[in-house]
Amino acid sequence: MSLQRSTLAAPTLRHIDWLLFTAVLVVCVLGITFIWSASFRVSQQTGDWRATTQPVRQVVWLLVSLVVFVAVLLVPYTRLMRLSYPLYLVGIVLLVGVFFHPPIKHVHRWYRLGGVLFQPSEYMKVILIMTLSRYLMYRENYRRLSGLVGPFVLTLAPLILVVREPDLGTALVFLPILFALLYVAGARKRHLLTIIVVGLALLPVVYYFVLELYQQERVISFINPAAHAQAGGYQLRNSLCAVGSGGILGKGWGAGTQNLFGFIPADLTDFIFAVYAEEWGLLGALFLLVLYYIIFLCGLGIAKSTREPYGRLLAVGVVAMFAVQVLINIGMTIQLMPVTGLPLPFMSYGGSSLLSSFIALGLLINVGKHRIPVLADEDFK
């Protein structure tokens, strides 16, 4: 019996991309470290600085995420592929059902399950990657402009629901995932470029008829943050102040003044990078970016070495999801993009974000672990 167990365990450990996994764990440790720093508050009773319970909760979510990660890793991804369409339907039902749930923080994004908040849109990103990968793996009609209707319908259905919650930050991730998968699958570049041009032309319509008023003000504050104290201008100014005041080496862990005195809103979640950059400076920020670069590079390496269509699309979709989230989150922190609520993968506080990210990581490493031979003379055939 022990021999059988070791035989089953050996391939799992031997074929894991340990560089990718280690880089992710280091980011998680950094996240918990700076969630701890950002959670310090002055006690009204004693006047002492005390950390809140968020760091402990994040550690618990990390342990849960690691268990789920191992579970995803143990099942060959080709078997998980069969769950793509049923999971998509479940995801849509959950996104619709959240509107019939009492609002939390004045929005319809979460279900409250006991003392835990469950955010279906976080998991829908991963489900969409699985669904689009299965839809595109052997089809050729997406090489025609009319054949792109199916993938766009699959993407726009959850996207519209997430926008209506409203959760623009999460919704912004859906279309880049779609375009990345279409490009890798072999869609014609001129068709994708045409759709992008049409989409850019429709941006004024989206601005005036889709975005909420506070979202419109965030776009304006991105252009002129000094003119708008609210709706992102306040956040952006203090975020830039925190990042800039960190200098080369930073002020030291727990010594960031913008952080300690509460000048950075959403410091545990959306603006955790501002806390990190203030306390660890430019060199610390570069170290974090190198870690993310390693994650992206390893993910693309898995995609490149996988000829099986579903696996390659799955790997590309996961890398695209992580890359877009990092780009948007850090971009808004340093005024390269408008302020929008989107967590930094593996680093921001939040159970749904961390768990969904580890599920995606499990799928990515799963693809690299199971090398499935393909006899076709061309990919996606």
Weakly predicted, low-confidence segments = 1-11
Arithmetic mean pLDDT: 86
N-end to C-end Cα span: 41 Å
- Could you tell me the strand content as a percent range? under 5%
What's the SSE pattern? Answer: HHEEHHHEEHHHHHHHHHHHH
Count of β-strands: 4
Biggest beta-sheet profile: 2 strands, antiparallel
Q: Write down the overall geometry.
A: globular
User: How large is the radius of gyration?
Assistant: 21 Å
**What's the helical proportion of residues?**
55-70%
Query: Count the helices. How many?
Result: 17
- Label the structural class: mainly alpha
- Spatial strand arrangement across the major sheet: 1-2
Tally of domains: 1
List the helices and strands and how they pair.
Elements: H1 2-14, H2 18-38, E1 40-42, E2 49-51, H3 54-74, H4 77-80, H5 84-97, E3 111-113, E4 116-118, H6 120-136, H7 149-163, H8 168-171, H9 174-185, H10 189-201, H11 203-209, H12 213-223, H13 233-245, H14 257-260, H15 272-304, H16 309-333, H17 351-369
Helix pairs in contact: 2-3, 2-15, 3-17, 5-6, 5-7, 6-7, 6-9, 6-16, 6-17, 7-9, 9-16, 13-15, 15-16, 16-17
